[in-house]
Each structure stands twice: as C-alpha cells, then as structure tokens.
C-alpha cells in the first residue's frame, strides 16, 4: 500500500491538555495553514477514530501524549504495531517528562522520536517544524 497521508495534510493528535493542544495546533497552522489537526483527548477513542479513516485518507503524522487517559501514547503505538496499514505513519510521543526510560521504551516500540514538551510558547513552533520533518514527501 502506498502511503498517501502527506497529501491529506492531516495530523492526528492524542492530547488531553487543552493548552498544549492549542499551542501545537497553532504552531502547525503557522508553518502551513493547510495542515489540519484533529485532536482526540483519549487513547481508546484515538485508536477507534483512526480505525474509521479510509486507507487513502490516513494522516501524515501521529503525535501522542505519553500520559493520555485510557491508553497511553506507548500503548497506542503498541496497538498500532499490530496493523500494517499504520506502519508507514510516523509516530511521535511527547510528554512533560524527560525520562530516559520513557524515551527508550517509546523508541523501542517504534516511535520515531520522544519529545519533551516545551516550557515556553516560542518553542512550540520549533518542535512543530521538527515533527513535520518526519512526514514523507
């Protein structure tokens, strides 16, 4: 299956903190207003929503909060690893924790990176640009 998510300009965000959601969404929009961010604040609902998307409409990027309710970011990655249709989508886990253990676990399971959430608003733009660097052209 050919990966077409980058053509859809869709990012799925698993995030339950409304401030982090708004700041990251704003940063993606500032980089390119064509990016659409869909935020789901619950891990189980995130996976269920992703399962409803047709193959040709799959997102270009998944950004997963490490500590999201019901399924953590790591548990989401683990669940998605069982489905070949999600393998080509870059998965980034981000968290307020800079724990090397959390990072190692995330990377071991297949996340392309583990990013510590920034403490200042200006850094969201830099992080969003970095996240988009994983999207296949």
CATH class: Alpha Beta
- According to CATH, the fold-level topology is Rossmann fold
Distance between the termini: 16 Å
Q: Please state how the strands of the largest beta sheet are arranged side by side.
A: 2-1-3-4-5
Mean pLDDT: 92
Q: Classify the beta-strand content into a percent band.
A: 15-25%
CATH superfamily: Response regulator
Order of helices and strands: HEHEHEHEHEH
Low-pLDDT stretches: 1-5
The structural domain count equals 1
Protein name: Response regulatory domain-containing protein
InterPro entries: CheY-like_superfamily (IPR011006), Sig_transdc_resp-reg_receiver (IPR001789), TCS_response_regulator (IPR052893)
Keywords: Phosphoprotein
Pfam family, one: Response_reg
């Amino acid at each position: 299956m050919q990966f077409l998510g980058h053509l859809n300009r869709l990012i799925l965000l698993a995030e339950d903190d409304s401030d982090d959601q708004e700041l990251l969404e704003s940063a993606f929009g500032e980089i390119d207003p064509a990016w659409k961010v869909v935020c789901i604040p619950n891990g189980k609902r995130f996976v269920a929503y992703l399962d409803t998307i047709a193959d040709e409409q799959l997102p270009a990027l998944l950004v997963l909060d490490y500590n999201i309710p019901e399924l953590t970011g790591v548990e989401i990655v683990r669940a998605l690893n069982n489905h070949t249709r999600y393998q080509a989508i870059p998965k980034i886990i981000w968290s307020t924790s800079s724990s090397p253990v959390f990072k190692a676990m995330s990377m071991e399971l297949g996340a392309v990176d583990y990013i510590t959430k920034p403490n200042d608003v200006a850094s969201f733009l830099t992080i969003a640009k970095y996240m988009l660097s994983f999207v296949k052209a």
